[in-house]
Amino acid sequence: MVTATFRFYEELNDFLARPLRRRTFSCACARGATAKHMIEVLGVPHTEVELILVNGESVGFNHPLADGDRIAVYPKFEALDIQPLLRVREHPLRVVRFIADAHLGGLAPLLRLAGFDTLYDNHYPDADIEALAAAQQRIVLTRDRELLKRRAITHGCYVRTLRPREQLREVFERLDLAGSAQPFRLCLMCNAPLRRIAKDEVGDRAPDGVLERHNQFVTCDVCRRVFWEGTHWQRMRALMDSVAGAPERPDLNAAP
């Protein structure tokens, strides 16, 4: 048995037992225990961690701990504004894609609205989420910290807020998504790409009054829903502007 000293910073303290928060504390560790193992034993999912310093040196999750080690654990640097050069990532993602668990049924369609490929099914077991995240290189979004401790999940985000629009703002801020958003590209229900459709192809998929007032339409080839720039679109446009702050205001005619 070895003893190491730990200090967790910023929002990582939310995962710790209350007596351990925002202070340095000693903890007994099994001989040969890794940094990842002990961080998660203490309650912090590895996907929430950006940097681990052991005795002042940056180490990876698999670093074995020794007696007397001093471990400092830092969260995502977007929240701390620390130089990106210090980031330690073994498996960087080339494309931002998500998979949301059953707790985030309201967030998933809002991420699709913003243009982010987001898988969601409230019947996904944790093992399926883990497998899909690994196979498709997706970021796991969840309010279940135990899910984020699964070994095959390399990228994840514990969502702290409860209401979908607040969750959207939280994810945008924590993962710095504003520059990557492409609103109104995906079907909110199916996660499939939307495409332009001629007005005379709409048929009975839109009310007569809508056909009289609008000329631009898009459709989803999976569910065959048709969308147009009505009052609901305007409300969603305002939401996207508020979270992404995009100077451009693409209309439905820009859909692929």
Give an overview of the whole structure.
25% of the residues lie in helices and 20% in strands. The protein has 256 residues and is of the alpha/beta class. It folds into three domains: 2-86, Roll (Ubiquitin-like (UB roll)), CATH 3.10.20; 98-180; 194-254, no CATH class. The strands form three sheets. The chain has a five-stranded mixed β-sheet. Strands 7-6-8-9 form a four-stranded parallel β-sheet, sandwiched between helices. A three-stranded antiparallel β-sheet has the order 10-11-12, with no helix packed on it. A hairpin with a 5-residue loop joins strand 11 (217-220) and strand 12 (226-227). It is elongated, with a radius of gyration of 22 Å. The N and C termini lie far apart (60 Å). InterPro entries: Beta-grasp_dom_sf, Mopterin_synth/thiamin_S_b, Mut7-C_RNAse_dom, Ub_Mut7C. This is Twitching motility protein PilT. Residues 97-239 form the Mut7-C RNAse domain.
Comma- or semicolon-separated keywords:
256 residues; alpha/beta; Ub_Mut7C; Beta-grasp_dom_sf; five-stranded mixed beta sheet; four-stranded parallel beta sheet
Element order: H for helix, E for strand: EEHEEEHEHEHEHEHEHEEH
Helix content: 25-40%
CATH H-level superfamily of the largest domain: Beta-grasp domain
Low-confidence parts: 78-91, 246-250
Report Rg. Answer: 22 Å
Kindly estimate the percentage of residues that lie in beta strands according to DSSP.
15-25%
- What is the count of helical runs? 8
- Strands of the biggest beta sheet: in what spatial order? 2-1-5-3-4
- The dominant shape is elongated
